[in-house]
Amino acid sequence: MALQITTDVVTSDGFTVQPFAFLDIQLYQLFSRALITYYKDEATFIAGGSPVNVPNLPSLVNAELTASEFWGTELATLIHNKCITAIEEVTGAGTCEIVTL
User: Fold this and answer.
1) Beta bridge mates, 9
2) What is the pLDDT of residues 61-101, one digit of tens each?
3) What φ, ψ does residue 21 adopt, rounded to 5°?
4) pLDDT digit string, tens, across residues 6-33
5) Kind of pairing, strands 16-17 and 20-26?
6) Of the candidates 41, 34, 31, which has an alpha carbon nearest to the alpha carbon of residue 11?
7) How far apart are CA 12 and CA 92, in angstroms?
8) What's this model's pTM, rounded to 2 decimal places?
């Protein structure tokens, strides 16, 4: 799974993109987080291209999981949804969605 932002954002280089976001999910029982890396698009990510810097979007989201969430069956979806919430605080409601590769 990954995230697709469906609205334009501006990179630090001044380019306008609708970035594809990949999460590096780090799980620890007491503390879990997702590092978010943004790419120009899905094809750039798949090809191993360089990420883009989007300074106004979050690059780290603390998941703040309960024990039942941590050990639950929907952990990956839950963390992706927490990242969507953080991204949409900047981009607006309904502008980010989970995609599968």
Assistant:
1) 17
2) 998 888 898 888 999 999 999 999 999 999 999 999 999 87
3) -115, 130
4) 999 999 999 999 999 999 998 876 678 8
5) unpaired
6) 41
7) 20
8) 0.91
Nearest alpha-carbon partner for 95 in 3, 2, 22, 1: 3
Nearest in space to 26 (alpha carbons), one of 67, 70, 57: 70
Q: Which amino acid, 97?
A: E
Tracing tokens 């943004």 back to the chain, one arrives at 38
Q: Which residues contact 88 (CB under 8 A, 6 or more apart)?
A: 94, 95, 96
22 HSE (CA, 13 A, CB side): 16
Rg (CA), the chain: 14
Encoded tokens for 19:
């970035």
- Locate 64 and state its tokens: 């703040």
The structure tokens listed for 28 are 């620890």
